[in-house]
Each structure stands twice: as structure tokens, then as C-alpha cells.
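DM from R.C. (forwarded with permission)

"hey, sorry to bug you on a friday — could you get me a structure for this? deadline for the figure draft is monday and I only need the backbone to look sensible"
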Amino acid sequence: MDELFELRVPHSAEAEQAVIGSMLIDSACIPDVLNKTRSDDFYLEVNRDIFDTIYNMYIYGRTVDPITVLDQMRVRGVIRDSSQGYLLELMQVTPTAANVMKYAEILREQSLLRALLKAGNDITEMVRDGAGEADTMLEAAERKIYALRQGRTVGGLMKIANVIQDVYNQISENAASDSKIPGLPTGLADLDSTILGLNKGDLVLIASRPGMGKTSIALNIALHVAKISRKTVAVFSLEMSREQLAIRLLAGESLVDSQKLLTGQLSHAEWQRIGSAASVISETDIMIDDNPSLSVAEMNSQCRRLDNLGLVVIDYLQLMQSAGSGRSYAGENRTQAVSDISRMMKIMAKELNVPVICLSQLSRANETRTNKRPVLSDLRESGAIEQDADIVIGLYRDGYYDRECPNPNEAEAIVLKNRHGELKTVPLMWLPEYTSYVSAERRHSEEDGY
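My reply, with the result:
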């Protein structure tokens, strides 16, 4: 009966043996195999034990060959009476190590089929048990399938060895990269060095009083990420229309006064700059949804269908009606609603494995203080928002409160919370005619460029 069950579960004993055999024949292929293959990809326990042993030896820089692997299996307590003969057999049945990545592809495909079988069984069981409303079950099913497409699993316990392997591979990728930061660059160098860029799974909150320019800085970042990374950037605008956002993008990229853009009173040189800017923006993969009644669940569902997603921007939190979790808020307990929305956004960032930038309004509390710079407690319906966010940035400029101040366009991005490092105030420059933020030291060079 066990043999019949094993035949029905997708796996390839031959591919598993060929991958391990290749690693024993030619240790030079081990780094490539470890980048594509995980312990859980091996269905047969005997093969999984040998793979784990080789992985541990490679991490510690030890020589990998049949003798040393056998010795380490003895040390790790996974050796069997037949292990020595089995290792020799693996080398004999492997035609050549040159095809190891093809064997690894077969291994990965069978592993994916097993995961798909499990997800299908879980979904069937969930429906049979009637675990919630249809929309809730559909959301859960969609999340499981999406995770499989991304090569990940939803929930469940995972060996720390597998987690360490993922982290090790990520560190290796970062080391090989030319970038000095692990995340996507915002285009604001001083801010990048403080928050280490926009990192996968992070919820980044940008907060300010109305009219301070939080939409503008978010669009600046979105455009820079889209241009540099060539990834898809999803922008959900609950306040402004697609056309309004496009005008802001054009003004910032072309450095043409946004008022002139609206009136069309442009010089020949300005028309040329707009043409160039329109071409640059059109070549990016920025997707905009301006539906004002979207829930987090609906945003998440749309983002799952994007193959090359790099960043999500949401403008702004207090306009959102619900998390889309099936719960309604009769009598409008707004604090609880915002708490649920903020939690769902953090879950979305983790599930999509991309940074999510959410804009938020500050309460009027800061305006009653002498020092009007924002603090965490100024977040409207605060509590859960500051808890769920990985990074919180408050925008401030003296010119917002006092237009007669010496430098009304000098601005600050105050990092109020930072899970990746220190809290710091980053100087910026606000260019109101272009509705754009730039690094303080870049202001003159940007203007002189035209």
C-alpha cells in the first residue's frame, strides 16, 4: 500500500539521485545547485539527508567527496548500513555532472507538483468544512496558489536550515551586486543610506499634514524604482485621478512648472522637455488604479496577477474603507478599522514579498506644539499603524507653517521608526513648481541640467 501511495506522489527518484551524484562527482557545481535547490525538493528521505550533509559541508568550506560525506553523515547521525554502497551507486548512475542543472529543474518541478497537490487538498478540505464565507475561502485559495508561483509556502513550520539557506543565498546576491544597499533605491541618496532602500516585505509609512507633499515624494520614488529596476510598480490612488498623477509625474520628470502644464502655455523648449519626459515615463511599467473604494484584499488580488512586481504605493491610508477581511464596521469604529487595514497591508507586503509604501495623514496634534516636527503619536488612529510599519517617515518643512521663513523650501524626511537602522533626519529640498522632492545637495544640479 505504501509503495502504491509513493507512486502517486509526484517525485523523480532518478533526478534526485542524479543531482546528488553530480555534486559528488564535481564539487564545482555545488554553488549552482544550492542556488536552485532546497532540502524540501527531495522527496526521498535518504536523498534529503545526503543533500543536507553536503550543504552543511559546503557552508563550512569543507571538501566534498564520497569519503568526507560519509564521515559527516556519521557525525550528523543520519548514516545507514547501506550508505557507503548507496553513495557509490549514485556516482555510477549519474552519466555526467554537466547536466546537473537540468536534473535540478526536474527535481524542482516535481517538488512544485507535490506542493500543488497539497494546496489542492487543503482547498478541498477547507470548502468541505465550510471554513468561512465563499469570498474568504477564495482569498485563502488564491493566496496559496500565488505563494506556489513565487516558490514559497503559506504558513507551516519550516526547518531553520532552509531559512538559513535562503538568507545565505540572499547575502551572496547582495555581495555580488554593485549596489551599496540591499533594497530598491528611492532616488534620495541620504534616505537610502538610512533605511537601506526599500526592502522586500517592508511596510513603509510616509506621513505628513495635508499639502506637505507626501503624494509627490511617493510618486518620485515610484518613478525612480520603475526606471532603475525595470520592475512593475503598482500605484493605488484613492484620492487623485490617473490624469492628475500623470501630470505630477510629467512635471517632476521634465522640470516644467505644473501650472504651465495645466494651462498649456509652454515654450518650444518646454514642449521638448515634456516630450522627452513622456517618453521616459511611458517606457516604465507603472500601473495606476484610481478606484476610491478599493479594499486591501482587492489591491492584493490585483497585485498577485502582476508577474514582475517590484513596489506597491497606496495613497492614502485614511481613505480606505476596509481591509476586505469580511468584517464590517457598523457605527464606524474607525480606530479598529484602521488597525485591521494596517495589519492587512503588512501581511500583503510579506505575501507579495515586495515593499509597500502607504501614505498617511498626521493628526493636528503637532500644530499645538512649539516644535511642529512630527512624532509617531501624531499618526491618526495611531497604535497599530506604528506597530505594523517597518519604517515610518514624517515629512516636515518650516515653509508650510511660515512662508516668510528664510528657506521655505528646505524640507526634512524624519525617520521616526526604522527596523533596519538608526533614526535620523534627512535633509531634502521641496520644488513646489514641479511638485517634487530631491536630495538637498542635488537641487542646483537638477535645475542647472536644463
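R.C.: lifesaver. The longest helix spans residues 100-129.
me: no worries. The domain at 1-177 is CATH 1.10.860.10 (DNAb Helicase; Chain A).
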